[in-house]
Amino acid sequence: MCPSEGYIINYNLNKRVAKMNASWTLFRKMSTREEIGMGLTGFGVFFLFFGMILFFDKALLAIGNILFVAGLSFVIGLERTFRFFFQKHKMKATSFFLGGVFVVLIGWPIIGVLLEIYGFFLLFRGFFPVAVGFIRRIPVLGSILNLPFISAYADKVGESNTMV
Predict the structure, then answer these.
(1) Most buried among 32, 89, 125, 152, by the most CB within 10 A?
(2) Residues 58 and 107: beta-carbon distance below 8 Å
(3) For residue range 16-50, what is the model confidence (pLDDT) as tens digits?
(4) CA distances from 119 to 101, 130, 152 (A)
(5) Is the Cβ–Cβ distance between 45 and 63 less than 8 Å?
(6) Dihedral sign for Cα atoms in the order 118, 120, 125, 128
């Protein structure tokens, strides 16, 4: 093997490693704060789901609400959380969502969860078209969204023109 041949092999190997590293940069490493936030949000969703399954248990729903909001704050940061919730055009949605959290905390779980769900849909309605578009590209779920009865609703959700 001549010296120039070794250089070419080494160059090709470095090129391949650089390409592999570039593909991994699409998924950036989460910070410890974001990992904690994902855990808190996950536990919050679990407690909310479990609280609804157990006939709207007040304690589980309250814990789920607190963990969900705290986890969201950890994931995107306090400043961005406040900016998201307290935008002028989202004040109605925020009042329903946080009002529902408060109603659950004072002991009326069914009314509180209904208020939260309505506020949640108002808050995140700008994200639903993105989610529907993503789900349509998934092989099995995309074919389910194209069924006659479901496609009308999916098209309606996918055509939102509201601001995020």
Answers:
(1) 125
(2) yes
(3) 555 555 545 556 788 999 999 999 999 999 999 99
(4) 10, 19, 24
(5) no
(6) negative
